[in-house]
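Supplementary Note 3. Input sequence used for the single-chain structure prediction.
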Amino acid sequence: MEIRPARAHDIPQIQEIYNHYIRHTTITFEEEALTLAQMQARVEAVTQRLPWLVGTEGDQVLGYAYANRWKERAAYRHTVEATIYLRDGCGGQGRGRALYGALLGKLEQVDGKQALIAQVDDVPPDTLREMSDWFRNAVKSGVMVLGTVSEGKPQLVVAVTDDLTKQGLHAGNLIKQIAAVVGGGGGGRPTMAQAGGRDASRLGEALAEARKLLAH
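The predicted structure, written as discrete structure tokens, is reproduced below.
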């Protein structure tokens, strides 16, 4: 799979991938499928400041990843949220992980960050742990929250860099509150924690709860 910046001719396929999630899942929090013009506007707004990547094989877009500002206020100027979507049927083959790694590398070039919150599609728990290690190795100061659905069950992982644990941020304590949203529990070390749950339909709400907790 080739990973590169999104181009204008990719937008119809990006729209197709995203609209599948609107129609068949609850993770987008949107009820109406996007028009081509609406998707084009979103891509253009993001790429003015941050990367939007696509993973392709030949002419087909298999997935995409982009970063966006979490909040526009000055206090959050180094905080971004990552989003990764794969074409239906393309999960479980390392493509989400590859897009995540490429996006993380691009973010390091354009934006120091304090928080990375993302849902990645069809990633097994072991890979989530690997992704948390990549984050802590790549980022000097930050916190990452990732969520996925694996075999029909929600999975969450939180990673915190060493400097922030010294300031009182504890991955194990954070994940307990987040996992409760999906009917689960968990814990772990101050720097890394993982949890599962029962209600995959509420994974988006769990990530929204993470945003609230980190805003305090």
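Residues 46 and 93 are 27 Å apart (CA to CA). The longest strand covers residues 60-69.
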